[in-house]
Amino acid sequence: MMAGGRKAFSLAARESSILVVGGAGYIGCHAAHALRRMGYEAILYDNLSRGHRFLGKGFELIEADIFDTEILSGALKRVSAVMHFAADSQVGESVQNPRKYFRNNVEGGIALLNATLDAGVSKFIFSSTCAVYGVPERSPITEEMPRRPVNPYGMSKLFFENALEACAPAYGLRSVSLRYFNAAGADEQENIGELHEPETHLIPCALKAVTGERGALQIFGTDYPTPDGTCIRDYIHVSDLAEAHVLALKHLDGIAGAAQYNLGTGEGASVQKVIATIEEVTGTSVPRRLAERRPGDPPELVADPSRAQAALGWKARRGLREIVETAWQWEQKMAAQTARNTGA
Ligand code: UFG
User: Fold this and answer.
1) What whole-number distance in Å separates Cα of residue 101 and Cα of residue 120?
2) What does the alpha-carbon distance between residue 317 and residue 180 come to, in Å, rounded to a whole number?
3) If DSSP codes are grouped into helix, strand and coil, which group holds residue 202?
4) Fold of the CATH domain 14-342
5) I need a labelling partner for 179 at 20 to 30 A (CA). Which of 77, 86, 149, 341 fits?
6) What are the distances in angstroms from CA 54 to CA 48, 190, 205, 299?
């Protein structure tokens, strides 16, 4: 009776536990909080090469690498699903150093996938990207459009999407690949936010130009075929992204096979529009200068998010203003912390 009772309890614990691989990174830690808010237990798994211990505060953190099969297998025995956020994600770096992307994103991803299958875990949520589409023929982008990545980062993500698709009929793996557009912003309640080293993304770079932590923001190209000449992107609040992961997890209980969904707002904003919003929110002019186009930047990437809306019941609830407001709060918190640490 006792033994049976204990077993039932541990099975129930396993059912509600999710391994968040890359859980001490920007999007992974937001997903962990979203899981907790919706009644799941998140166990974080991170080698802290890009993640930060403090972003995983309040959660169990297994500090290990995805190539460490023994530790990974032990962790997988305790969970019913995997969310995979552990990847390198800089387009420019991937062009300079493709081997790094093939090693970490492809080989590392496959190591995780094999361990997941071996552990009998049948639910998998994958952080994919709009970079799988390359330079799309039309905007907004639907999931049926061809996947023709134009850089090694996008290629590595496409490889893994394909691997998930192959594992569905072969091993009964159920998976969702979530193709993020431009993730930005920070959680409204927790002490978490965007923290990349080096930082290359538009919104944090512009905010650091406002605080003086960096020099003037460079605007990469003003001669694109867009209304104001600057690139258009679909900025999506990280908390909206995080919530989509939990909905995708629930969705996996009702599907067989591999599904893919775009996660964006469906609204594009140009670099100039983002700068104008930052100026409204901060009440400060963004120091900036015009620069050459950055190689590999498509003029416009905007999601058609209707498939995610229909299948997951998900819709982005926050817009550009909320993204910039929360990113600004986070930037100020981090600046204050740095000042305390350096005694400035
Ligand atoms: N930009 C600037 N100045 C900067 C930084 C960015 O003008 O200092 C511009 C870029 O040229 C681009 C836009 O701002 O037009 C957004 O750039 P980000 O670097 O913030 O984001 P990306 O669109 O390059 O990258 C995002 C994701 C990647 C993903 C890619 C797909 O972060 O993971 O979309 O194209 F692969």
Assistant:
1) 27
2) 15
3) helix
4) Rossmann fold (3.40.50)
5) 77
6) 10, 11, 22, 36
**Rounded distance between C-alpha atoms, residue 212 and residue 300, angstroms:** 29
Residues with CB under 6 A from ligand 1: 89, 91, 129-131, 153, 182, 200-202, 205, 217-220, 231, 233, 271, 294, 297, 301
In this structure, which residue's CA is closest to atom 15 in ligand 1? 231
Distance, first Cα to last Cα, the chain: 62
301 CA closest ligand 1 atom index: 35
The residues spanned by each domain of the chain are 14-342
Beta-ladder partners of 303: 141
Q: State the amino acid at position 329 in one-letter form.
A: Q
pLDDT tens, position by position, for the chain (344 residues)? 344 455 556 888 999 999 999 999 999 999 999 999 999 999 999 999 999 999 999 999 999 999 999 999 999 999 999 999 999 999 989 999 999 999 999 999 999 999 999 999 999 999 999 999 999 999 999 999 999 999 999 999 999 999 999 999 999 999 999 999 999 999 999 999 999 888 999 999 999 999 999 999 999 999 999 999 999 999 999 999 999 999 999 999 998 999 999 999 999 999 999 999 999 999 999 999 999 999 888 999 999 999 999 999 999 999 999 999 999 999 999 888 888 887 76
